[in-house]
Amino acid sequence: MKTDRLIETLSTNLEPVERAGLAKPVALALLAGGLLSLAAMLATLGLSTDHAAAMGFLGFKVLFALGLVATGALVLIRSLHPGRSTRRPFIAFLALLLLAGLVCAEAFLEGSPAHWSGIVFDPRWTTCVSCIPLFAMVPFAALTWALRKGAPTNLRRTGAMAGLVAGLIGAAVYALHCPADSLLFIAVWYSAAIGFCALVGALAGPRTLRW
User: Fold this and answer.
1) Looking at the 3D structure of the chain, how many domains does it have?
2) Which of 2, 3, 105, 136 has the most CB atoms around its CB within 10 Å?
């Protein structure tokens, strides 16, 4: 077949891809991954028994993590369209991270140095840094499935963002069990666990998201 004829055949009946069409798999992956992660947490750890925290600090942890998940999901959806800017949702995502950092820094500065080591090295830190990545595994696998339906151009960056979002879901789910109410504890160990998820995503992205 001649080149001109091949091009004509391939370009016949082409239709633009709807932007919403690629958003649906990502939304489905977030919902399914989050629910399965929640089910795993309930089956293994159970909900926090501190009802006062559930109405206060616990609610703040979960809602803030879900807010980051939502903005991170927007970055992922835009990354599925080659050439489409991810600047605005990424700036919003960074703004939320900066806000969290400022709040944690204020708590760190106001705390007593004598109590810092006791708070940071609370015996529950090992459970935190192991459970968050575990609860992030299913959301990450679901997001990888969804992202392969698009055409991301920067696979490492997209993988890192997918790992970050999955880690945030894992953190939100784990927070429903975690009895810790220290901003310093959360700043150190939640961030470490979520950062690990992002690193794994960055390393896996070039392989798992290749198209």
Assistant:
1) 1
2) 136
pLDDT in tens, 14-57: 445 455 567 899 999 999 999 999 999 999 999 877 655 555 67
C-alpha of 205 from chain center: 14
pTM > 0.90: no
Report if residue 6 sits inside a domain. Answer: no
* Count of C-beta atoms within a 10 Å radius of residue 180: 22
95-107 core/surface letters (b: 16 or more CB in 10 A; e: else): ebeeebeeebeeb
**26, 69 Cβ separation under 8 angstroms:** no
- Spatial CA neighbour of 189 closest among 114, 105, 131: 131
**Is residue 5 included in any domain, yes or no?**
no
Cα three-residue angle 93-95-99, rounded to 5 degrees: 120
The answer to whether residue 9 is domain-embedded is no
**pLDDT tens-digit profile of 89-99?**
778 888 877 88
Q: Give the integer Cα–Cα distance in Å for 196 and 193.
A: 5
Q: Which two tokens mark 126? A: 């090992």
Please check whether residue 131 lies inside any domain of the structure: yes
End-to-end CA distance of the chain: 26
In this model, does residue 104 exceed pLDDT 60? yes
Q: Which domain holds residue 170?
A: 20-107+124-208
Alpha helices (H) in 80-154, listed in sequence order: 87-110, 113-120, 125-147
